[in-house]
Specification:
Elements lengths: L1 E5 L2 E4 L4 E8 L8 E6 L10 E6 L6 E3 L7 E6 L4 E6 L8 E7 L4 E2 L3 E6 L1
Parallel strand pairs: 2-11
Antiparallel strand pairs: 1-3, 3-8, 4-5, 4-9, 5-6, 7-8, 9-10, 9-11
Length: 117
């Protein structure tokens, strides 16, 4: 099982970024997928913060409160890829963003998002 995130970078406050996570090694369409983040306020020993998750069909997504109205999770099962579109970015969104498959306990390497004020 392998997850590879991409699309991170530097954005200004109010800007947008779209992250991608390509999956391999399992039947992607049979699993819900999640996005997490770990920011500078969260030390290495602290849990990553759930951003949200999407069901296997892509019909329903749930979000943590900070992400509601600004972030959108989607997926393309034909491409085995899950996306995280982030709008109206804030400096406190600065973090390493990870995709996750809970069933296999799989994590990607993460992609850094930095939002400047």
């Amino acid at each position: 099982v392998q997850l590879v995130e991409s699309g991170g970078g530097l954005a200004q406050a109010g800007g947008s970024l779209t992250l991608s996570c390509g999956a391999s090694g399992f039947i992607f369409s049979r699993h819900s997928m999640s996005w997490y983040r770990q920011g500078p306020r969260q030390g290495p020993g602290q849990e990553r913060e759930l951003v949200g998750f999407i069901d296997r069909d892509g019909k329903e997504a749930m979000y943590n409160d900070f992400a509601k109205g600004r972030f959108t999770i989607s997926r393309d099962n034909a491409k085995s890829t899950v996306y995280l579109q982030m709008n109206n970015l804030k400096p406190e969104d600065t973090a390493v963003y990870y995709c996750n498959n809970h069933f296999f306990g799989a994590w990607g390497q993460g992609t850094q998002v930095t939002v400047s004020s």
